[in-house]
């Protein structure tokens, strides 16, 4: 497995679970995943969400992507630090990809439209078959 496998797996998984921290309390929630490419794993949230404040205070996260399959399916975990992205072209793209955001009054220059990515870190895949094997970390 390599980083291209990570990109494909993430892009084939529409929902992921992102863990952040609020003080010393872990917080996890399901998110509609946006996309991954060679520059990282991209997410979009609203600035009014608690997660935004959590990520500003502590940018370390772990994301779990899971696809069902035989036994327990396949899981990919990605860990790294988020980077907020203030790029008008990406904001226009997220509005095209997620037109429902416009119903909430979002525009590409709305301060409540937040994009972040995990540009570097490590990932690994897990299946029941590989459960007792050492983790094979993929650095990106």
From TrEMBL:
SUPFAM superfamilies, A to Z: FMN-binding split barrel
Organism superkingdom: Archaea
Question: In which organism is this protein found?
Answer: Methanobacterium lacus (strain AL-21)
Annotated ranges, domain Pyridoxamine 5'-phosphate oxidase N-terminal: 9-95
Q: Fetch the PANTHER family from UniProt.
A: PROTEIN BLI-3 (PTHR34818)
InterPro entries assigned: Pyridox_Oxase_N, Split_barrel_FMN-bd, Stress-Dev_Protein
Kindly provide the name given to this protein in its UniProt entry. Pyridoxamine 5'-phosphate oxidase-related FMN-binding protein
What are the leading ranks of the lineage? Archaea, Methanobacteriati, Methanobacteriota, Methanomada group, Methanobacteria
């Amino acid at each position: 497995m390599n980083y291209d496998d990570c990109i494909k797996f993430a892009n084939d998984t529409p929902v992921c679970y992102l863990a952040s921290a609020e003080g010393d309390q872990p917080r996890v929630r399901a998110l509609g995943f946006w996309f991954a490419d060679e520059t990282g794993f991209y997410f979009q949230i609203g600035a009014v969400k608690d997660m935004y404040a959590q990520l500003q205070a502590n940018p370390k996260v772990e994301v779990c992507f899971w696809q069902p399959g035989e036994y327990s399916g396949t899981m990919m975990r990605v860990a790294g630090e988020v980077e907020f992205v203030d790029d008008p072209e990406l904001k226009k793209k997220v509005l095209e990809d997620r037109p429902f955001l416009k119903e909430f009054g979002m525009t590409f220059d709305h301060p409540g439209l937040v994009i972040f990515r995990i540009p570097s870190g490590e990932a690994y895949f897990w299946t029941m078959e590989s459960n007792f094997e050492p983790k094979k970390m993929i650095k990106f």
